[in-house]
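Hey team,

Filing this mostly as a record. A colleague (T.K.) asked me to run one chain through the structure pipeline before their review meeting, and I want the input and output archived in the tracker in case anyone asks later how it was produced. No errors, nothing strange. Just documentation.

Input sequence:
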Amino acid sequence: MIITISHQKGGVGKSTLAFNIASELSKQSKVEIIDLDVQQTVSTYHHIRSEMGHNPLPVHIFTTPEELENYIDSIDEDIIVIVDSGGFDSSLNRFLILISDFIITPVSSEFTEILGLQKYEGILRELSEQTDSLLVTNVVLNKISPNQKRFDDVSDFIKSSCHFKLMDSILRRRVDFANSVAHGFSVYELDKSSEASKELIDLVQEIKNKVGINDKKED
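Output structure:
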């Protein structure tokens, strides 16, 4: 199972989202991470996690589609691979889009996000035409102001495209996301009762429901 956090635009929160999703899914499944971000943020998060005495997840870095393909061919089918793709368009990122079982694209509610989504929609359209299949990403509203109730411009644009599906879960701008990674934790590991934790768990459960990941008893 390959779940890719993908957007050609940087600064939308892909790395933090990938780290938190991977951390929660790893409690009941075997999880590994692919870090395609130039800044290697997820790798840094797991380095901090290790320094803090917590068990980090395996993180892999690839520079060519061939290296990535060899890795994919070698992993067991019960492993969930979380991909933090780079905030740019490249052959490697496009390859990941094509082989992913589930794609998640985080966006904020700012009107300028529509411009970024239009460019990303163009990439999905090109790949769909090349493969003669409809490629769809699941868009999650991320880093939303805690007080904001409406985001019609962005949500209407998302719903107007055959390449986008708007997820039910919403992640709001919470200081816990920054505080948690500084200690090598997911937001849930930092404070299970926080609003950020509740929102993350809702998102992870929605992902599980959509891709068919069954809860398993922990060892």
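Quick notes for T.K.: The chain is about 45% helix and 20% strand. Residues 6 and 152 are 22 Å apart (CA to CA).
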